[in-house]
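Objective 1b. Sequence-to-structure analysis of Amino acid ABC transporter, substrate-binding protein.
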Amino acid sequence: MKRTSSGLYVAVIFALIVSLTGTAFAGKLQQQLSAESAIEQSLRRGVLKIGMSTFVPWAMKDKTGKLIGFEIDVATRLARDMGVRAEFIPTKWAGIIPALLTGKFDVIIGGMGIRPNRNLKVNFTIPYDYTGMSIVAHKQLAANFSTLEDFNRPDVTVAARLGSTAVTAAKQFMPKAKLRMFDDESQAYQELINGKAHAAVGSAPTPAFYAIKYPEQLFLPLKEIFTKEPIGFAVRKGDADTLNFFNNWIRVVEAEGWLKERKHYWFETKDWENMIK
C-alpha cells in the first residue's frame, strides 16, 4: 500500500512539473509570437507599411502626385489611430500577395476581394466594404450589346487587370470571349478607349466613371453590378494579434459611420474630381 502511494505521489509530482514547464513554454511562445506580429513591429518602428495598387477611386494620384482615394483614407486613419505613420508601397496587383508574404509590407489595403483561393495564402479581416463587378463597353464595337451573354462570344475581346477578381468574373460569365489582361487597370481601359477591346471589366464604380469621362466612345451595357464581393485587409497567416486589432478597428469606424461617409464621398460624388484634373 505504501509502495502504491509513493508511486502515485511521484506520478503527480512529475505531471505537475510537466504541466508547469508546458505552461511556461506556451507563455514564452505566446510572448514571442506577439512580439513578432505585424502590429507590434509597426508600433516599434512607428510606421505601418501598406501594400496597395492604384485604381480609381480606391487609390490614385492627385495633380501634385500625392496619393488620394477611399483606400488611402482608410489606411491613413488606421495608422493614425495606431499612433504611427502610414507608408504606402505601390505594388503590381499580380504580385501583391507574394510581396506581403515576403514581408515587403505589413498589410494589403487595396480593395482586395475576400476569396477562398486567396484565403489559402493569407488571412482576411472582416469586410470593411462590399463591391461588385461592372462592365463598360465600346459604343461601336459593342453596339446593341445589353447582356453578359452578348459578350460571351469568341469574336469579342474583354480587357481586365491581371490578378484581379475582374479576371475571375470575366472567365465565369464570358468564358467564350478573348480575355486580355494588363498589369495596370488604366491600361485595360485604355485598350477599350482605343477600340482594341469590346469591353473592360472592373470593380464598380470605375467602369461608370470611364463611361462618363468618355461618352463619345464608351457606354454601360448593364446598369447594375453583376457580382457582389466582400472586401477585407489581407495579413500574413498566423498573426492573430494583428488580425484581432484590425477587425476591432473596422467595427469601431463602421459603428461611427465613418466608413459609410468616406464611401459616399469617393463612390457617390465627384467632389474630388478637380483634385486629379
